[in-house]
Write a structure and sequence with these properties.
Distance between the termini: 17 Å
Structural class: alpha+beta
Strand order of the largest sheet: 1-2-3-4
Number of strands: 6
Strand content: 15-25%
Shape: globular
Number of domains: 1
CATH class: Mainly Alpha
CATH superfamily: Winged helix-like DNA-binding domain superfamily/Winged helix DNA-binding domain
Oligomer: single chain
CATH architecture: Orthogonal Bundle
Largest sheet: 4 strands, antiparallel
Order of helices and strands: EEEEHHHEE
């Protein structure tokens, strides 16, 4: 479990709580979020996310990551400001310090 201000991430249940509102995530969204949170503010490339979330046998398009990031942001609402795009490099979860 990760707690950051009014945001609680319960990775084991693929769930996020923002304030008092529970947000259910798909397994893929949860895996992406887990990778980003585990990077501790570091940038995770699209290629790294594909390997960690889908594995080496991934046969889809790399832009699939973009689609999942968009859905994740939509579900997170205001808390999505911590999910940042690092142009030309990938994504990161900017933890409050």
């Amino acid at each position: 479990m990760v707690v950051e201000g009014n945001l609680t991430i319960i990775l084991e249940r693929c769930q996020v709580v923002v304030g008092k509102k529970e947000i259910s995530l798909t397994v893929t969204e949860c895996s992406i979020l887990a990778c980003l949170v585990a990077s501790r503010g570091g940038t995770v490339s699209r290629k790294e996310l594909i390997l960690k979330v889908w594995g080496e046998s991934f046969a889809g398009k790399p832009t699939t990551v973009n689609t999942h990031i968009q859905r994740l942001r939509r579900k997170l609402g205001r808390a999505a400001k911590a999910l940042q795009t690092v142009r030309g490099q990938g994504y990161r979860w900017k933890c409050a310090r």
